[in-house]
Amino acid sequence: MSDNRHTPDDPFTPAGNELELDSFVPAYLQLAAVLRWQITTQQLPSGTPAPSEPDLAGRYGVSRDTSRRCYAILRRYGLIVSRRGKGHFVGQVEPLQYLHPARGSTVTGRHVHYGEEVPGFSPLARALLVPILVVQEPGKPAARYDAMRTILRCGDSEG
Fold it and tell me: How many domains in the chain?
């Protein structure tokens, strides 16, 4: 994927972009995580209109208040820009990073520990319970990456 865009059938896309309404994670946070993924992977490119609050609520089977709370969080972190009378628009986001760990590396996924500092890991990612990738390359200290902004490529291929 040379243009860094992903499609809905991308294996890295959260399962069906569906919400688990019986989860302990509030629906507005789940919805914010889905939209964050769509924005980060450029399914919703910077500057484009985001779905209206009623459309978002209807698409995911939640109340309009849930979609409003979702947008409030995304606005707080600059992923969504709201213009009175115009709607919501996707803000500027950092591109995905592609990681090619060295042969013999160990890669694990986990949640951030309380008080742990992860370079480049936003407070929004922490609030949305986004996991991190911990990469231990031979002879180097472990490095941590935001799992929703990092595409892991293993082996010798560039594709």
Answer: 2
Please give the Cα distance from 150 to 63 (Å, whole number): 32
Tell me the residue range of the domain where 134 lies: 97-152
Final residue belonging to a domain, choices 42, 65, 90: 90
Q: Phi, psi at residue 110, to the nearest 5°? A: -165, 170
Four-point Cα dihedral 104, 108, 114, 115, nearest 10: 30
Q: Give residue-wise pLDDT tens across range 71-120.
A: 998 998 888 999 988 999 999 887 778 888 888 899 888 888 777 777 77
In tens, the pLDDT along 109-159 reads 888 877 777 777 777 777 777 788 888 899 999 888 887 778 888 765 554
Q: Which residues contact residue 83 at a Cβ distance below 8 angstroms, ignoring those fewer than 6 apart?
A: 89
Half-sphere exposure of 88 (CA within 13 A, CB side): 24
Residues 6+ apart with CB under 8 A from 130: 33, 36, 121, 146, 147, 148
| 144 lies in some domain | yes
What pLDDT does residue 145 have? 85
Q: The tokens of 136 are what?
A: 């231990």
Q: With the CA atoms of 105, 133, 8 and 81 taken in that order, what torsion angle do they form, in degrees rounded to the nearest 10?
A: -140
